[in-house]
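User: For a benchmark we're assembling, each entry needs the component sequences followed by a predicted structure for the full assembly. Here are entry 17's components. Please fill in the structure.
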Amino acid sequence: MGLSDLNLRVLIPYLPVLGWGALRTLEVSALAIALSFPLGLVGALMRLSDNRFARSIATVYVEVVRNIPLLVVLYILFLVLPLYGIPINALTAGVLGLAINSTAFTIEIIRAGFAAIPPGQYEAARSLGLHRLQMLRLVILPQVFRIVLPTLGNQIVSVVLGSAVASIIGVSELTYETQSIGSSTFRYFELFTIAALFYIACVQAISLLWRLLTGRAAHAPLGT
Amino acid sequence: MLASGHLTNYLLLLLKGLAITLELSLGSLVLGSLGGIVLGAMRSSGWRALRVIALAYTETVRSIPFVILLFFVFFAVPLALDIDIPPYPAAIAALSVHASAYMGEVVRSGIESIPKGQWEAGASLGLPYYRIMRHIVLPQALRVMIPPTIGVYVSTIKESSLASIIGFVELLGQGMAIREANSLHNTADVLVAVAFGYFVVCFSLSQVGRYLEHRTTRDLRPATEPTRAAMARPLVSGRPETQAATIRQTTDDRGVLLRG
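Assistant: Structure for entry 17:
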């Protein structure tokens, strides 16, 4: 078979399966993001807290997870947990693994956002008599939020790209369906091109949407 | 868990796997850096067409999951071109393409970190573009580029674990092979040992990168410079990321604000 044999028409019957796979990709990514962004905020607050114990837990978590490949995390969840009597299916393991991975990076992103807030902001809030929670909620977090928004957009993109790894433990998302249709039709070239185009379109759409959605928040003047 | 009997028998195999992982990643990093230098030079060149081509390549590679890239090289290219590509060349090719897109960005930002005056000084000496690049800009940019290059190496090591799924036996592949050979036993510890191997290597490299980065930013930023840099541009621009960057630039090593 050579390049001259390219034939997209053979793939028409498989398009619905690919479409479902693409939806699964988005679903898995959305679930992982929905878990990891709030957890990332909690972790960042832990990293910056006065409590030494909370700080060490968050720091160790970030360093360990960031330095282990996602596939190894997925294998440990999917293959090792059942050995200890914890049943887990591929989808749960996939979402959980992606969320564990993404939380570590989100903690670092939000922590960097906190680090960019000038100390004067804390001093000003304190001199106004705000207590800790009010200071965080009314003064610090809104500013942190704006600073980290663009980077969180990149994190969403990397979760979508990472979700392809979940195909290896059998999550039936786009890469998995592409691979399984390929193994019966041998139309790998066409199939992977379609999958690649989907991911490119997806990433560009997410970047654009994210900029549109967060653009106003990110550029609004402070203090209104 | 780690102390169970059969693991010690396999420690040597796992270490061998780790060595292969490091070799595969280093080879890909070297090839990727060559591509990255070309891409970075294209990105900062005066020709629009070159800039557009390099940008399109970078964006495309960075928008495709590495798994797809790897499968494309391993499954699709051999079918389309009627050639045979064994796992090792496939893995190294996919990893190099992936690394080149990231190295291109590292080289570009390295080149951009060199003040314009250096280019002007080179031009006023009558040097042509490539000689300014080779003798003046790149040697200085190289220093700024080392810490992020270590970052690319770390992520290449992590991505290289995916080579195990096309049948290349590196660290993770070795671990999975041991698991399969001992299917009757509890082999949780093998995967934990594999994770530990990746962690030790990647964590140490990251620490080295962090140290070098700290040293470079300290040396490149004499006490008076941040104030001058801050005055050269408006301190508060509309975009929060520039605002954050400006704030970071106006603080000294201990994070104390020098201005603003």
